[in-house]
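Data deposition worksheet. Section B asks for the primary sequence of the deposited chain exactly as it was used as input, without tags or linkers unless they were present during the calculation. Section C holds the resulting structure in C-alpha cell form. Section D is free text for depositor observations; keep each observation to a single sentence. Incomplete worksheets are returned to the depositor.
Section A, Depositor: J.P.
Section B:
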Amino acid sequence: MNAHFYAIVWIDRQEAKVFHFNATEIDRLVIRPHDPARRIRHEASSFGSDRPEDQDYFERIAGAIADARAILITGPESAKSELAAHVMHRHLDLAGRIAGIETIDHPGSGALVALARIYFGADDRRRSRI
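Section C:
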C-alpha cells in the first residue's frame, strides 16, 4: 500500500475492511478470519480474546494498519473493541495512534471513507487548537 496518513477499519466477525487514505488517494484491503463461521469470543470479564484464531485475525489487521499515523476503528459489534484491546495489549506504538472507536452498522465503502474524512478533519482541527 502507498504511504497514507489515515486508516479506518470496519470490523465484524466475518471480515475487516481496512481503508488507508489521504486527501487524494484511497487503498482498500479486506481481511477475513481463517474460520469466519466461528464467533470472535467476547467475555465481559476479559480484555481481548486469547483464542489463537482471534489473535491471528487481529494480528493481520494490526499489520495492515501499522503504517498509519491516525486510526479509526469502527464496526457494529464487539469485534471493534476486541481489536482495540488486542492492539493496546500487544502493539503499544500502534495503540497511541488510535484516534477513536465508533459503533457503525454496515455502511458502504464510500460512506465509510467519507465519515472518516469528516472524523479526522474534526480531529485535526481539535489538535491544532491545543
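Section D:
The radius of gyration is 14 Å.
The chain has one domain: 6-129.
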